[in-house]
Design brief:
The strands form two sheets. The protein has a seven-stranded parallel β-sheet with strand order 3-2-1-4-5-6-7, with helices on both faces. Strands 10-9-8-11-12-13 form a six-stranded parallel β-sheet, sandwiched between helices. It is built from 17 helices and 13 strands. By secondary structure, it is of the alpha/beta class. Helix 1 links the parallel strand 1 and strand 2. The protein has two domains: 222 residues, Rossmann fold (3-Layer(aba) Sandwich), CATH 3.40.50.2000; 166 residues, Rossmann fold. The relative contact order is 0.12. Helices cover 47% and strands 18% of the residues.
Length: 410
């Protein structure tokens, strides 16, 4: 009988590529896979359906979308806010753990119940809201579990409520991480941070993707920059990119693929019109994760401008970097500790500058604009490093994940 694995995310299927890749890899390796995810954002639900159409594993969805599951959306919100209020009143370290969990994860009860609703020999999950649910659901099944720590969850947020969220994350991680059969992490520095904080040993598994090289590098025309994420909002470093284009006076295009926060997108457009009139901003709708590498192929530089003010941003290596490389597109990186370490391995495929140094970025963009051979050389190097190391099928990424499951399940 095939070992039965339940793969879990508290987010949408299409917004958690790490769990999507894990499910695919396990299915291909001969495991019987069941995936648990949620539904709460309309655009992501449509991409979820597109993603699942191409995959044979079983899928269970917890719906708390405002339009399709209004009652669940309201009841879970009441529970979530009530638990947070109790945690504030008693203090995150003193409130009962059951309350701390529900003040951190809105869908904990539903996730744990769904995980335990069908037999599984092992449960593996990622994203913040799934950590305790994976442990809880596995315990109900009498199964072992593994956790994926894509981010350093106790230092990943900013703004109102972040202090409480980080304290609750610490409380939950202190309880569940030592109980896991194995842990994986989104970057070596994230793995090191968890190791130092909790005396655990996560295995780094990068956010790499299967390569897809199509077409020839762009040798001329306006410099084409590309950035994508789930949400287009503040704290992304895009203002510096626009200011740098305006400062060097080149003709360029900045393509942005994400669900925009309307006020922020309007402000970005006004900023561009005032300070970089030679720049054209093009907004694109979110797309299926299965198409993200393909969609990154048409550009000269893929942008990953982490500002480094948040600890997690200094430690992480985001999906976008490895999506660009898998497409054969060179990367423009801010010199956060994690990205600077990676850049040393990428050679000419990476261009690095200090966060906030608009003058340095302007000089980089001017050089790229005036040198088509540089664009071609960097694109060639991006393909080279992707083939050599930075692809999902590498033994240190997909191979490391499957090795962890073999050790756990035989």
């Amino acid at each position: 009988m095939k070992p039965r694995v339940c793969v879990v995310t508290a987010g949408h299927l299409s917004t958690c590529p790490r769990m999507l890749k894990a499910a695919d890899a396990l299915q291909d390796a001969g495991y019987q896979v069941r995936v648990v995810s949620t539904r709460h954002v309309s655009w992501a639900w449509h991409t979820d359906l597109c993603v699942k159409m191409r995959r044979p594993w079983a899928w269970q969805v917890i719906d708390y979308d405002r339009a399709s599951a209004r009652r669940k959306q309201l009841s879970s919100g009441v529970r979530f806010r009530g638990a947070q209020a109790a945690a504030r009143a008693a203090g995150p370290a003193r409130v009962p753990l059951t309350i701390a969990i529900r003040g951190y994860s809105r869908m904990h009860d539903e996730l744990a119940t769904t995980i335990a609703s069908e037999p599984a020999d092992f449960v593996y999950g990622g994203t913040t809201g799934a950590l305790a649910a994976v442990a809880d659901g596995a315990q109900r099944l009498g199964a072992r579990f593994g956790l994926d720590l894509e981010d350093f969850h106790s230092a990943e947020q900013t703004g109102e409520g972040s202090e409480l969220a980080h304290a609750l994350a610490e409380r939950i991680e202190s309880d569940v991480l030592p109980k896991a059969t194995f842990l994986t992490a989104g970057s070596p520095m994230i793995a090191d941070a968890y190791s130092a904080k909790y005396n655990v040993r996560p295995t780094p598994i990068h956010n790499t993707f299967s390569t897809n090289f199509a077409g020839a590098p762009n040798r001329g025309g306006p410099l084409r920059l590309y950035w994508f994420s789930q949400t287009l909002g503040p704290g992304r470093g895009l203002g510096d990119v626009i200011a740098a284009v305006g400062r060097c006076g080149i003709t360029a295009e900045l393509h942005l693929r994400a669900r925009p926060i309307a006020a922020y997108a309007a402000g970005l457009t006004r900023f561009q019109a005032r300070f970089a009139p030679s720049l054209k901003i093009v907004f694109h709708d979110p797309e299926s994760p299965d198409r993200m590498v393909e969609l990154a192929q048409a550009y000269d530089l893929g942008v990953s401008t982490e500002d480094g003010t948040v600890l997690n941003h200094r430690l992480c290596l985001g999906n976008k970097i490895f999506t660009y490389l898998a497409a054969g597109t060179p990367v423009l990186l801010t010199a956060t500790p994690a990205q600077a370490r990676l850049a040393a391995d990428l050679g000419a495929a990476a261009t690095l500058y200090q966060p906030g140094d608009v003058n340095a970025l302007a000089a980089i963009l001017q050089r790229w604009d005036g040198d088509p051979n540089l664009r071609c050389m960097a694109a060639h190097e991006a393909r080279t490093v992707a083939r050599r190391r930075w692809h999902w099928e590498h033994t240190d990424d997909r191979g490391a994940l499957l090795a962890a499951f073999r050790a756990a399940l035989g």
